[in-house]
From TrEMBL:
Segments forming a coiled coil: 121-155
The organism's taxonomic lineage, starting at the top: Eukaryota, Metazoa, Chordata, Craniata, Vertebrata
SAM domain boundaries: 267-329, 342-400, 425-456
Species assigned in the record: Cyprinus carpio
Protein name in the entry: PPFIA binding protein 2
Composition-biased stretches (Polar residues): 180-200
PANTHER family the UniProt entry points to: LAR INTERACTING PROTEIN LIP -RELATED PROTEIN, LIPRIN-BETA-2
UniProt KW keywords: Coiled coil, Phosphoprotein, Repeat
UniProt xrefs under SMART domains: SAM (SM00454)
Compositionally biased region (Basic and acidic residues): 571-586
Family assignment from sequence similarity: Belongs to the liprin family. Liprin-beta subfamily.
Function: May regulate the disassembly of focal adhesions. Did not bind receptor-like tyrosine phosphatases type 2A.
GO annotations of cellular component type: cytosol; presynaptic active zone
Length: 586
């Protein structure tokens, strides 16, 4: 029974087990189908992802190729840019070389032109001297011919008179044969007893008087001392009546006129005229010969310009300053600098465009010392920057006691420069400094600008921005302007830089420009009647010196530029002068 039960239970278990296997098999087949479906889905997804990966790889390769081509193009661009930069530098060097060559050719041309002018002036002077000598020879020959003509006339009259006397004596002998009558008729007879003399007729008395009158004329003119063969003798200058006619000034008279140990008031007319000719006022010599009798005539006259016909105000001022030095007997160092030196000085301070006006006005060193703002305006110097340039240059001359060679033209050691040396730099020396700091291409722009060492150091408104403006450096080139400012500050020194900075930060500061003009002084209605009285007013001078400054210059300070506010003429306290020089007229 148990066995049957076991078999029955086993069958029952196998039946149930078969059912579970079938169910499981069905379930597994369902799972298999779902898995197959999932596998197919996943396979599709893997294929899609593979396609995406392949697309990304292809795009990556394309971008990689593009990157490589871009790098190659960048390298080519860099190469081309470097080549362009090298070409630009070569062109800049070539342009700077051409500019320097142009400046050198201009200087050479100016030098040749000056030499030609000097040569032409010398030729004209030689021709003038030759003409003067010819005129003097003609005057001498004229006077000699006049003397010969007078002598021949006197001799002919004397011969005719002796002929008449001989005829008269012969007729008298024919009428009276006694010796007493013959002695009475002779004009040289001393006479004997009156009873033995026969009466003389009125005609005889008339003949005697005419003979005495003729002999008196011969004695007065001293024609009897002339040689008989005067026509064959050579004419000697300075001989008999050689100075009867007027004379022209010859070249030899200037040498004798220079030997003047006597005071000016004792000079003769020839000495005064020779001095005026050497002084540069040769156009007034002819009027001076007609009016001047001695040097005292010029010293005591109140209407010199009217008598000499002087219409140029600077010529009148030049003559008045010279006469004042003669009357005060004070010889100034500036009087040794003539107007030709002043034209060269304008080249040194960078203002050669005014050489013709200064030469026409005969502006010399003494006139520079007493030059006024209105004088500069008359010389057509209207730029405010050029006024300040001339002002600082005159101050440098004051400090150096008008030494003609105080301005430095040749470059020295650029690493060992001090403000006391920079203040004596000429315009050409400043251009050389620009070349030394790698700004050679902008250096020619300073020609005619009036920039020199005195303006750079002494003018508080002249800073690196002003210099950059004059050099035509664009504001966009900030690195170049910064380079210029650094070298400019090193050049002027700490003290001058501090003063310029203080002036820059002041309330009434106005920067320097090339278009700023100087206005003439405003004159009130009451000042028109006193115009002549204010010609010697020291406040009108372009570079005045007060008592303390003049004493400091006379004492000869070791460092005359150490205190710029003490000796510099730039810091004017007079509000009228600041209004005249500082106001702009655009």
């Amino acid at each position: 029974m148990k066995f049957i039960e076991v078999i029955y239970s086993h069958k029952k278990w196998t039946r149930s087990n078969n059912e579970t296997y079938q169910e499981r098999l069905v379930r597994l087949e369902g799972d298999k189908e779902s898995l197959v479906l999932q596998v197919s889905v996943l396979t599709d997804q893997v294929e899609a992802q593979g396609e995406k990966i392949r697309d990304l790889e292809s795009s990556l390769e394309e971008h990689h190729h593009k990157l490589i081509s871009t790098e190659e193009m960048l390298q080519q661009e860099l190469f081309s840019r470097t080549s362009l930069e090298t070409q630009k530098l070569e062109l800049v060097d070539e342009v700077s070389y051409l500019k320097l060559k142009l400046v050198g050719m201009e200087e050479e041309h100016n030098h040749i032109a000056e030499q030609e002018k000097h040569h032409k002036a010398e030729v004209l002077l030689q021709e003038l001297h030759i003409l003067k000598s010819k005129v003097e020879d003609l005057e001498g020959e004229k006077s000699q011919y006049e003397r010969k003509l007078k002598a021949t006339k006197v001799i002919s009259k004397f011969e005719s008179l002796t002929f008449y006397v001989d005829c008269f004596l012969l007729t008298g002998k024919a009428e009276k044969t006694d010796d007493s009558t013959l002695s009475d008729l002779s004009p040289m007879s001393s006479g004997v007893e009156s009873g033995q003399q026969s009466p003389v007729s009125p005609e005889d008395k008339k003949n005697q008087k005419s003979i005495q009158k003729l002999w008196g004329k011969i004695r007065r003119t001293q024609s009897g001392s002339l040689p008989a063969d005067g026509s064959d003798s050579d004419f000697k200058r300075g001989g008999f009546r050689a100075t009867a006619g007027p004379r022209l000034t010859c070249p030899g008279t200037s040498a004798s006129a220079r030997d003047m140990n006597a005071p000016f008031s004792k000079w003769s007319c020839d000495q005064v005229c020779a001095w005026m000719e050497e002084f540069g006022l040769v156009q007034y010599v002819n009027m001076a010969r007609q009016w001047v009798t001695s040097g005292q005539t010029l010293l005591s006259s109140q209407d010199i310009e009217k008598e000499l016909g002087i219409k140029h105000p600077l010529h009148r001022k030049k003559l008045q300053l010279a006469l004042r030095s003669f009357s005060t007997k004070i010889t100034e160092k500036s009087s040794e600098l003539d107007h030709i030196w002043v034209t060269r000085w304008l080249d040194d301070i960078g203002l050669p465009q005014y050489k013709d006006q200064f030469s026409e006005g005969r502006v010399d060193g003494r006139m520079l010392q007493y030059l006024t703002v209105n004088d500069l305006l008359f010389l057509k110097v209207t730029s405010q920057l050029h006024h300040l340039s001339i002002k600082c240059a005159i101050h440098v001359l004051h400090v150096n006691k008008f030494d003609p060679s105080c301005l430095k033209r040749r470059p020295g050691d650029e690493n060992k420069t001090s403000p006391s040396e920079v203040v004596q730099w000429s315009n050409h020396r400043v251009m050389e400094w620009l070349r030394s700091v790698d700004l050679a291409e902008y250096a020619p722009n300073l020609r005619g600008s009036g920039v020199h060492g005195g303006l750079i150091i002494l003018e508080p408104r002249f800073n690196s921005d002003t210099l950059a403006m004059l050099l035509n450096i664009p504001p966009q080139k900030t690195l170049l302007r910064r380079h210029l400012a650094t070298n400019f500050n090193m050049l002027v020194g700490s003290q001058a830089q501090q003063e310029k900075q203080e002036y820059l930060e002041s309330s009434g500061y106005t920067p320097l420009t090339t278009t700023a003009k100087v206005r003439p002084r405003k004159m009130g209605f009451s000042s028109f009647g006193h115009r002549k009285k204010r010609t010697d007013d020291s406040t009108d001078y372009i570079c005045p010196l007060d008592a303390s400054q003049a004493q400091a210059l006379l004492n000869g300070a070791n460092r005359p530029y150490s205190g710029f506010r003490g000796l510099s003429p730039i810091f004017d306290r007079d509000p009228q002068r600041r209004e005249q020089v500082g106001d702009l007229q655009i």
